[in-house]
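example protein:
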Amino acid sequence: MEPNQSANPFQTPAIPPASATETGAALVDNGRTTPAGNGLNWITAGWNIFTQSALVWIVCMVILLVMFVVLSFVPFLGNMVLYVVMPILTGGLMMGCQAQHEGRPLEIGDLFAGFQKRTVPLMLVGVMYLVVSVVLLLLAGLAFFVIVGSSGIVGAFMSGDQTAIMSLLAGSVFGALVVALLVLAAYIPIAMAFWFAPTLVALHDVEPMQAIRMSFFACLKNFMPFLLYGIVFLLIFFVAALPLGLGLFVAFPLMYASTYAAYRDIFLTDAAQ
């Protein structure tokens, strides 16, 4: 008999082969189209995943919160590190969801499993997301300054004409709102491209660029279920934020777990079909 070893909950667990999701399951390139109602099914399945190891999920969210707070105190560099590290941590949680599906309870070490396997590809997903986000913010900033500069508000301030200032200021605010809406519209395809990318990289060894492409087209194919999913999650986050934000420690694990459920529904099918 082997000697007993002391269990360390923070130790990164051994990760099974990522590409072997389970016998008979095949990965569908770009995903398959699912009914609109499946958006609710993903949330229900995510809730079941969460409740199986609720305490561990909450502890993982507390650890993530501490990391965010610590990195937020590091000017500029802290945010860059967050962008790069988040896909690694997300990939680890997806590995943990996979382990739960195979019968092993989620462990705190699963959060860091991405640092053990597929670290560089997951990091590259984060770098790509950082680059795209920075470009989008730069374009938004440029558009805002063009609107402000062309409005003549600077000259109005220098002349001291209060009537002109108020009129031009109202126009600038409207322009800023238009820019904000355009940024939001541009962010939607970005979110689609990166939603499943860490999961595909972590669980199937898909290369970062291919994973981003597959994620985008899978979300595009499933616009209606994701629309329903997004509306329901807006309500969930609104309610979760009410009790001093404590409900967010449930809402965020539910988001991760439902993402795994959506991945299984969209990307996995019976190989025999």
About this structure: The chain has a mean pLDDT of 85. The longest strand covers residues 25-27. DSSP finds ten helices and two strands in the chain.
